[in-house]
């Protein structure tokens, strides 16, 4: 079974990756899938159907922004997302020398708060910032997002 995030999904951390558990909602009702490796293989990409995009991705964003975003939205690479691992393969921990930040989006329906917490726990960032936003803070709160990015850069210049 392919695991794709839906509005009714819960995820938990396990064995160094994010494992997902789907609810009874059919993911085909929300997503259009691409089968880049052939129709007999698992989907390689997914795109939220037009009628669900505002409800799931941009529910707090201005209508004109969500309309523009819907025109620009492209399928996401679900194979890459599902196979992402949060384990250090670098024995010297050089990967941890680059400061990472995480910006939580409180009202996110794509990556829910419990999923965000699992991601943070799997690979703790150097700083965590919180935005009272949907999945798209660049539309809903662009100035606050910009402010957090400037703050993150300034705090990591040391």
Give a verbal description of the structure.
32% of the residues lie in helices and 18% in strands. By secondary structure, it is an alpha+beta fold. The N terminus is likely disordered. The longest helix has 14 residues.
Q: What is the rounded distance between the termini?
A: 46 Å
Instruction: Tell me about the largest β-sheet.
Output: 2 strands, antiparallel
Whole-number mean pLDDT: 79
The secondary-structure element order is EEEEHHHEHEHH
> Count of DSSP helices?
6
Q: Assign the structural class, choosing from mainly alpha, mainly beta, alpha/beta, alpha+beta, or little secondary structure.
A: alpha+beta
Strand elements, count: 6
Strand order of the largest sheet: 1-2
Q: Per the principal axes of the C-alpha atoms, what is the gross shape?
A: flat
Low-confidence region ranges: 1-25
């Amino acid at each position: 079974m392919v695991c794709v995030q839906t509005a009714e999904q819960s995820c938990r951390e396990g064995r160094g990756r994010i494992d997902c558990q789907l609810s009874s909602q059919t993911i085909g009702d929300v997503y259009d899938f691409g089968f880049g490796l052939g129709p007999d293989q698992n989907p390689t990409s997914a795109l939220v159907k037009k009628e669900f995009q505002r409800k799931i991705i941009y529910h707090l964003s201005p209508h004109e922004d969500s309309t523009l975003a819907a025109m620009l939205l492209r399928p996401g690479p679900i194979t890459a997302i599902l196979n992402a691992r949060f384990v250090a393969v670098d024995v010297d921990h050089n990967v941890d020398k680059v400061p990472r930040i995480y910006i939580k989006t409180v009202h996110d329906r794509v990556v829910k708060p419990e999923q965000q917490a699992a991601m943070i726990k799997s690979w703790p960032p150097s700083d965590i910032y919180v935005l009272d936003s949907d999945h798209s803070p660049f539309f809903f709160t662009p100035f606050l997002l910009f402010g957090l990015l400037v703050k993150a850069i300034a705090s990591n210049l040391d």
